[in-house]
Design brief:
CATH architecture of one domain: 3-Layer(aba) Sandwich
Radius of gyration: 24 Å
Shape: elongated
Helix content: 10-25%
Oligomer: single chain
CATH topology of one domain: MutS, DNA mismatch repair protein, domain I
Strand order of the largest sheet: 2-1-3
């Protein structure tokens, strides 16, 4: 774990410890340094995507949640801070959430909107690399 306020050395080359704390020596003239190839991977888990596709910046104080499931099996999938402050939590039954927050604004999960938002994110990432992959729905 990285201490708070410190960052990981993601873009620094980590060199093995050298004897005597001497700085690394430059390559001898006439020799080229060995070519190095590094693959850096970035994994993004969009936990709040089901909520963010319904973003309502005009009313952040409104308790809002996204649900999934059918009938008595409906559960809260994600909720905003206003809903969480009232006690609404992911995986909570819809009835329990409504008992805690009767004014809760609910939307059913919309996979088509999530997929469209994810495609926009993938297209954005494609400007930096051609190796973009999604496991949407898994």
């Amino acid at each position: 774990m990285v201490p708070r306020g410190r960052s990981l050395p993601l873009f620094e080359e980590v060199l093995p410890a050298q004897a005597g704390n001497e700085p690394p020596r430059p390559p001898q003239s006439g020799t080229a340094p060995a070519a190095r190839t590094k693959a850096l991977w970035l994994c993004v888990y969009l936990l709040r995507l089901p909520l963010e596709v319904f973003a309502r910046p005009e009313s952040p104080a409104q308790a809002f949640a996204v649900s999934e499931g059918e009938g008595s099996q409906q559960r809260i999938l994600a909720c905003n801070r206003a809903a969480a402050a009232l006690g609404v939590r992911p995986l909570q039954s819809l009835n329990s959430a409504l008992a805690l927050a009767p004014e809760l604004l609910l939307k059913a999960r919309d996979l088509a909107m999530e997929r469209a938002a994810l495609v926009r994110c993938l297209n954005w990432a494609g400007q930096y690399t051609s190796h973009v992959h999604s496991d949407f729905g898994n």
